[in-house]
Design a protein that fits this description.
Layout: E1 8-14, E2 17-23, H1 27-32, E3 34-35, H2 45-57, E4 62-68, E5 71-79, E6 95-103, H3 112-120, E7 130-135, H4 142-145, H5 149-162, E8 166-168, H6 173-176, E9 182-187, H7 193-203
Parallel strand pairs: 3-5, 6-7
Antiparallel strand pairs: 1-2, 2-4, 4-5, 5-6, 7-9, 8-9
């Protein structure tokens, strides 16, 4: 399918100052921005900055950012699922994964994550995608927030619902390994029935294995 990216932006007020939420951001623009030193959830800030530039270079890759001036303080990534994950086995070119959401600690609590997801879904092409996200409790900042897994999951569900993602059942072993883990999905308005059926088949790959 042809991947079209339409830019949108929104300004939000936070206790730490105003932010611009914008995207999808092209790689050359990402290179011009600095990366907040507190964005360390997945890897060191410099490496994560490079990873975002790499994703933005992909035909399907989408990066939505929150920035204060020229400093990126939050981001959301969308790209095809990892080839090693079951979600890639359907070979659907209209299935993308919301891979990472991160917001620097001083900007949390101001719905920055939710606003990034709302901006992401402003692009009409998102109606042509099945968008998924896999939530694993071992990726969550339980120590930094002081929350237990269930309270953190409620926050994640609330944030994802801002982008129209809802809970879906699956027999994926990693997701099934802990009750707090979950699969969340948004099926765009223009996704065809055949794609939905293929997606349902990979959601439940073990249903006949007794």
């Amino acid at each position: 399918m042809e991947h079209r990216k339409t830019y949108y932006s929104k300004e939000v007020e936070t206790p730490a100052g105003p932010l611009i939420i914008e995207g999808p951001i092209p790689p050359e623009k990402l290179m011009q921005y600095e990366f907040h030193e507190g964005l360390v959830a997945f890897r060191q800030p410099e490496q994560q900055h490079e990873a975002l530039i790499g994703i933005a270079n992909l035909p399907e890759g989408r990066i939505i950012i929150a920035r204060s001036g020229s400093t990126i303080v939050g981001y959301v990534t969308f790209l095809y699922p990892d080839p090693l994950e079951r979600w890639s086995e359907a070979k659907l070119d209209n299935l993308i994964e919301l891979g990472a959401v991160e917001v620097a600690s001083e900007y949390r609590g101001a719905s920055v994550g939710q606003t990034m997801l709302r901006v992401a879904m402003m692009d009409d092409q998102m109606e042509e995608y099945i968008t998924i996200t896999t939530e694993y409790y071992w990726h969550w900042d339980l120590k930094g927030t002081g929350l237990n897994v269930w309270d953190y999951r409620k926050i994640m569900e609330k944030m994802m619902s801002a982008g129209g993602l809802v809970w879906y059942a699956t027999d994926d072993p990693e997701i099934s390994s802990h009750p707090a883990n979950c699969l969340m999905v948004r099926i765009g308005a223009r996704v065809d029935q055949e794609s939905i059926q293929k997606f349902d088949q990979i959601r439940f790959m073990n249903r006949f294995m007794y």
